[in-house]
Design a protein that fits this description.
Order of helices and strands of chain A: EHHEEEEH
Number of domains of chain A: 1
Distance between the termini of chain A: 15 Å
CATH superfamily of chain A: Hotdog Thioesterase
Number of strands of chain A: 5
Oligomer: homotetramer
Largest sheet of chain A: 5 strands, antiparallel
CATH class of chain A: Alpha Beta
Chain lengths: 137, 137, 137, 137
């Protein structure tokens, strides 16, 4: 099962003077959900670096904003692994309101690259990590 | 001339524990450049709302991250109007380092929608605004 | 009972290039805890504005940073009402790690002012709100 | 001369749904001004770490909010060194609007500690750094 849904609350910090959630806040929400997808599989940032010698970095992202979110809203942010290449993970992501099946606010695709933690160069995803993540190429 | 380049400095607030500029920070930078593109034409958020009855909101964005930026870097963020439809502006944007022609860190396309300030519904861009912006459909 | 403790996770967005949680992030955490203190009593921002005609704004804050927090840490952020005057709430707040009684990372005092939602001027806290909050002057 | 004033613009990212600048944004502004105070003396974060083996971290801060700031405002953020002990710098800081002598929006005191970059323990400010900063104990 390669989907994860993270519930979160909209705070003042996430909103802007137009009275809705500020656009860059969604990119923070989307990253939280990808991080929790990893954590749900027992993998944290520190372990990636210390045991696998890698960091995961966002290589590209494409997002459509469908409806605004407001202060105090409860959002459900999903991360679903939709593809893996040698050095990249591709996630389909959505932000919905009220419930995990509620109104769609935002949807997109994030491409996450595996980088060598020392040299900061692209690197193939370690096989051991694929196993841990229960993901098959 | 429909391009604007905004120089800005990378502060601690923009970075993350991976030692580089955090991905969501770029979306803040890109918006600053679009806002300055407008301001350079004499248009501020308040005037859009008070005189034209509209707000501009991000409808979609697609970004590729090419190279990381670091603390204290000087970045040059461009916004170039590449298309206009009845209710949307499309901007090509880049983030470069050191100079306006320096190494490319990030590039993308932002689609900005014109919304009625009261009803929060999509609305055609007012003709008077097109004139002010010196933009032709 | 006038204390509330909010558990939260440290994400990349909260950290900086010094490898720890960025100082301004704590002010976001402290506000989330104050907001949840209110919500636990059934009061949300919208209701404050719509039913009581007020907004609550931070008038002053004083914080000491004791120990750094790191990526992926689980933090416990408390908000305890320690005083009320006619127009202000005073909160004692702490951030601890791992458990609600874990190592103290940060502590401080926040003064929150009651403002008229329309006129943006200081205003006495409505009596009805005191009752709802179960707070006595 | 130990004062520095940084002009900056308020963007959407700095505001919140109450229509004004969000409280945590001020702490980002104050840090930008302290960083530019250092840079004006030729000292950047990287040099602190690489040449002096230290990092500067916020140890405490106390801020009073006097008046709100709004979207598109031009702010002037000052940092003035008001005291130095063996391991700490104390800055008086203000945020004003429109000009460096404009209406006072926020004022406070920030205590910045010198830490060993490796061991993350408090450390006396290196004598060589005092000289560079043109600061005398």
């Amino acid at each position: 099962m390669n989907e994860f849904v993270l519930p979160l609350r909209v705070y003042l910090e996430d909103t802007d003077a137009q009275g809705v959630v500020y656009n860059a806040s969604y990119f923070r929400f989307l990253e939280r959900a990808r991080t929790e997808w990893l954590r749900a599989k027992g993998v944290e940032h520190n372990r990636l670096r210390d045991e696998h010698g890698i960091v995961l970095v966002l290589a590209g992202i494409e997002v459509k904003f469908r409806r605004p979110a407001s202060l105090d809203d409860e959002l459900y942010v999903s991360a679903e692994l939709s593809g893996v290449t040698g050095a990249r993970f591709v996630f389909r992501q959505e932000v919905r309101r009220d419930t995990a099946d509620g109104p769609l606010l935002c949807e997109g695709t994030a491409e996450v690259a595996c980088m060598d933690a020392m040299q900061r160069k692209p690197r193939r995803v370690p096989k051991a990590l694929f196993k841990e993540l229960n993901v098959w190429m």
